[in-house]
Each structure stands twice: as C-alpha cells, then as structure tokens.
Input
Amino acid sequence: MNDFLPIFVLLVLASGLVSLVLLISVLFGPRRRARNETKLQPYESGMRPIGPAQRRLPVRFYLIAVLFILFDIEVVFFFPWAVALRELGWAGLLSMLIFIGILEAGHFWLWRRGALEWEKMDK
Output
C-alpha cells in the first residue's frame, strides 16, 4: 500500500486544485451575459467581421494532414533500424531498402495522383 501513497497524494492534490479553480470561477466569474448585441459580436483588429466565424475547409487540408501523419509515423521505423543496423547485417539492410522502396512507391503514387498539390482556397 505504501507504493501507491504518492499516487494517491497526487490524485488528492490534483482534485483539490481542480475544485479550487472551479470554485473561484463560479464565485468571481460573470453572472449574466451582456444584452447589447454590439458587445456580443466578434472583434478582430478593429475590423468588422466579414462572413461566418467558422468556415468549411476543403477535404484537401485533412488529406494532407493525414498523409503527413502517415509518412511521419513510417519514418519513426527508421530509428530502431538505424540503432540495430550492425547487428542486423545485410538482411536488415535489404529489408529496410525494401521498406523504403514501398514507402517511396506510395509517395510517388500520391504525388502522381495530385494528393500533395496545395491549392489556394480562393478558387
């Protein structure tokens, strides 16, 4: 039980801090919203807002983000391979070259399909 005492103390302190912050926000926070419509409008550098505050983004942004994460995760496999390269020998080098070839084939395929092209939002 003594092994879990620091974790329990940390849990109690974190819960107490969260409770304290919530209590302070309830006690000192605003009680009601402003009824003036001008005060409820968004304010950006002295300019009146044009259009909605949230715009729909094209799917291309999400596609590029997902592709970045995908290739980034695949590159993480290079680090353990580089650390163990001497122990793996020629078989490890050949397997990593095959992996890099498959990775670059996918990269080339995406490039040829136009998935990596960045188009302006104005179009």
About this structure: The two ends are 64 Å apart (CA to CA).
